[in-house]
UniProtKB/TrEMBL annotation, chain A:
Cellular component terms (Gene Ontology): ATP-binding cassette (ABC) transporter complex, substrate-binding subunit-containing; maltose transport complex
Gene3D superfamilies: 2.40.50.100, Nucleic acid-binding proteins, P-loop containing nucleotide triphosphate hydrolases
GO molecular-function term, one example from the UniProt record: ATP binding
Localisation: Cell inner membrane
Bilayer disposition of the protein: Peripheral membrane protein
Protein name per Swiss-Prot or TrEMBL: ABC transporter ATP-binding protein
Entry keyword Magnesium: no
Family designation: Belongs to the ABC transporter superfamily.
Keyword Transcription regulation (UniProt): no
Keywords carried by this UniProt record: ATP-binding, Cell inner membrane, Cell membrane, Membrane, Nucleotide-binding, Transport
Source superkingdom: Bacteria
Automatic annotation (TrEMBL), chain B:
Domain ABC transmembrane type-1: 68-287
Primary localisation category: membrane
Domain of life the protein comes from: Bacteria
Organism: Xaviernesmea oryzae
Family: Belongs to the binding-protein-dependent transport system permease family.
Name used for this protein in its record: Sugar ABC transporter permease
Membrane topology qualifier: Multi-pass membrane protein
Sequence intervals crossing the membrane: 12-39, 71-92, 104-126, 155-179, 212-234, 269-290
Biological process (GO), any one: transmembrane transport
Residues in coiled coil: none
UniProt KW Iron keyword: no
Family matches, as InterPro entries: ABC_transporter_permease (IPR051393), MetI-like (IPR000515), MetI-like_sf (IPR035906)
Length: 368, 297
């Protein structure tokens, strides 16, 4: 088990910056997930850690040893590729033993290490097969087995489940969690799938535009995002953002109006201590589970909305609506089916609303 | 008439232009070649049946023995050497990108598009005894002049060098196409697993391009067994004088052509050609069998 520190790391291809000012501490035995949209630089960061990409600036330390210029093979890092990178001409055994073959390890050692890894991953009966004779999930396990055989300090996973179907992905996710618990190894995992990130990670690193947006435990990012990007990226369906005007500022709350273009409403009271009274325009972040469709729209108070789409998921119904000013809002009904009404009223749990400035940065209440 | 029969007739009609041309230009020459191999015929007099006499005469001639021996040496050196050079060039070109990749690819392909006559002329100048490039260089190091195309000890090897030079570019382009299809992450995985550049070539590149290598080897063998043009141009280039000094550059196709168009013994030439065809078909069949067993990556 090993720790990794990244300080002020940057990557550029010529004059084009890809990653900038990356600072990150990964503790020994931690399962860290890099998550972000396509092109955010998450795979590049992983490849920089592996040594497959050079670092333009900054420093990387593995167990307090600077590894910026250390050969990839000598970093003690193993990587599982998105496409598995299994050699089609070799058997499962030969694929898993590849690193040992390159190091000219004795056959007895190869056999022992491969068989041990195969046992962990339930691959023993497949050792004589070629990759073409394996299913997607089996190939994935062989790729992980090849990494285990190397007994690395850090495991790197580059979107390893993205080629699998949805059901297998859920199964492999569970297997990866069990593997991490069994090996207690430091693992860094790249994905664009925030569900994968939430379910696997001890710590999530959210990247966007080549910069780290926020680092934290999955539920911390969900409950307490630093900015609109993180708030919107984590969580499905995505968080609703409504522009609003600050009508009144008190010591422990604010009153906002104009939500969804409704100028007639009295205003929504949002608990918020120490709000800066100079800020007049804000954006409210509301998770879909904190917005509900009123059972009796005629008598209910809330935002007038028009239903555009209903997604029935059984236990949960997501109702997509559009407000008077054209802003979109998704509400969720738990254990209740939508009535079919088009004109409706959405009620918002004001105490759960998050406040962002117009630049998208989170405004947090003052601590008591 | 059922619709199925009508459809079949339409299919055969569409195939008929090709079948006709194939029959006229491929099947007829092969069958007539086999037919004439049992006859003594000089193209002007009436032919008469001689049984297997033509085959016996070819088999027992000294030229056949010499040509076969030359061919054996030539094939066993040219094919592996040619593939090795082409593979090395392809790996070199593949390691470059952008301008230099295009430059080297074009440069190495020039001998392929160059007229063979011109290539032979250049090499005759390079090999020339007194003012040739190679002998001039040897002279700088105080070494004696070598009669590359007149010394029976060097003629075959000098010709092999020309042949490899001429064919390497073509094979390089085919191998390069194979290299481009090897997924990059195979190499990245191998790098992380501690494979050196040489180990990557042996354990990743070569197995990954096995189907391409089988094609290049098979094509190289078929071409080598029919070698004619390069030794023909480096020697007399006429049916009165070919094969070079002491027949050091005599090969089966050249011997066959000499018997046909030089000595006007078309029966023997046909027998020669038919035996060569059988040999090439056998070698190709063996290569296909090997490919089926080992070739699929």
């Amino acid at each position: 088990m090993s720790s990794l520190q990244i300080s002020n790391a940057a990557k550029a291809y010529g004059a084009v910056p890809i990653l900038d000012n990356i600072n990150l501490d990964i503790a020994s035995g931690e399962f860290v997930v890099f998550v972000g949209p396509s092109g955010c630089g998450k795979s590049t960061l992983l490849r920089m850690i592996s040594g497959l990409e050079d670092i333009t600036a900054g420093e990387m330390r593995l167990d307090d040893r600077v590894i910026n210029h250390v050969d990839p093979a000598k970093r003690g890092i193993a990587m599982v590729f998105q496409s598995y990178a299994l050699y089609p001409h070799l058997t499962v055994f030969e694929n898993m033993a590849f690193s040992l073959t390159m190091a000219r390890a004795p056959m007895a050692e190869r056999k022992e290490k491969v068989e041990r890894a195969a046992e962990i991953l339930r691959l023993t009966h497949l050792l004589d097969r070629r990759p073409a004779q394996l299913s997607g999930g089996q190939k994935q396990r062989v790729a992980i087995g090849r990494a285990i055989v190397r007994q690395p300090k850090v495991f790197l996973f580059d979107e390893p489940l993205s080629n699998l179907d949805a059901e297998l992905r859920v199964q492999m996710r569970a297997e990866l969690i069990q593997l991490h618990q069994r090996l207690r190894a430091t693992m860094i995992y790249v994905t664009h799938d925030q569900v994968e990130a939430m379910t696997l990670a001890d710590k999530i690193v959210v990247l966007n535009g080549g910069r780290i947006q926020q680092v934290g435990r999955p539920l911390d990012l969900y409950d307490d995002p630093d900015n609109k990007f993180v708030a919107g990226f984590i969580g499905t369906p995505t968080m609703n953002f409504l522009s609003a005007r600050v009508k009144d500022v008190a010591a422990d709350h604010i009153v906002v109006s104009g939500l969804g273009g409704d100028t007639a409403a009295a205003g929504l009271v949002i608990p918020f201590a120490g709000f800066d009274p100079s800020i007049r325009e804000i954006q409210l972040g509301i998770r879909p589970e904190h917005a509900t469709i009123a059972i009796d729209p005629a008598s209910a108070e809330g935002l007038a909305a028009k239903v555009t789409l209903v997604e029935e998921l059984g236990d949960l119904t997501s109702v997509h609506t559009v407000l008077a000013n054209g802003e979109r809002l998704v509400a969720q009904n738990h254990g209740r089916r939508h009535s079919g009404a088009i004109e409706t009223v959405v009620r918002i749990a004001a105490d759960k609303a998050l406040v962002f400035d117009m630049a998208g940065q989170r405004l947090r209440p003052a601590k008591a | 008439m059922s619709s199925r029969t009508t459809r079949s007739i339409a299919h055969y009609l569409m195939l008929s232009p090709f079948m006709l041309l194939f029959a006229v230009f491929f099947l007829y020459p092969i069958v007539s070649g086999l037919f004439y191999s049992f006859f003594e015929w000089n193209a002007s007099q009436t032919s008469h049946f001689v049984g297997l006499a033509n085959y016996t005469k070819v088999f027992t001639s000294r030229n056949f023995e010499k040509a076969t021996w030359n061919l054996l040496i030539y094939v066993s050196i040219t094919v592996p050497l040619g593939i090795f050079v082409a593979l090395s060039l392809a790996l070199l070109v593949d390691s470059f990108s952008g301008f230099w990749a295009k430059f080297f690819r074009s440069a190495f392909f020039i001998p392929v598009v160059m007229p063979l006559f011109l290539a032979a002329t250049i090499w005759r100048w390079i090999y020339a005894p007194n003012f040739g490039l190679l002998n001039t260089i040897l002279g700088w190091f105080g070494m004696p002049s070598v009669q590359f195309l007149n010394d029976t000890g060097t003629m075959l090897y000098a010709m092999i060098a020309v042949d490899v030079w001429v064919s390497a570019g073509f094979n390089m382009v085919i191998i390069l196409a194979g290299l481009k299809n090897v997924p990059r992450h195979y190499y990245e995985a191998a790098r992380l697993d501690g494979a050196s550049t040489f180990q990557q070539v042996v354990h990743v590149t070569l197995p990954s391009i096995r189907p391409v290598l089988f094609f290049v080897i098979t094509y190289g063998l078929i071409s080598a067994l029919q070698v004619f043009d390069v030794p023909w141009l480096l020697t007399g280039s006429s049916f009165a004088e070919y094969g070079g000094r002491a027949n050091a550059l005599l090969f089966p196709v050249m011997d066959m052509m000499g018997r046909g168009f030089g000595s006007v013994r078309f029966g023997q030439a046909s027998a020669y050609g038919f035996m060569l065809t059988i040999l090439i078909v056998c070698v190709t069949a063996v290569m296909f069998a090997l490919r089926k067993k080992f070739g699929d990556a």
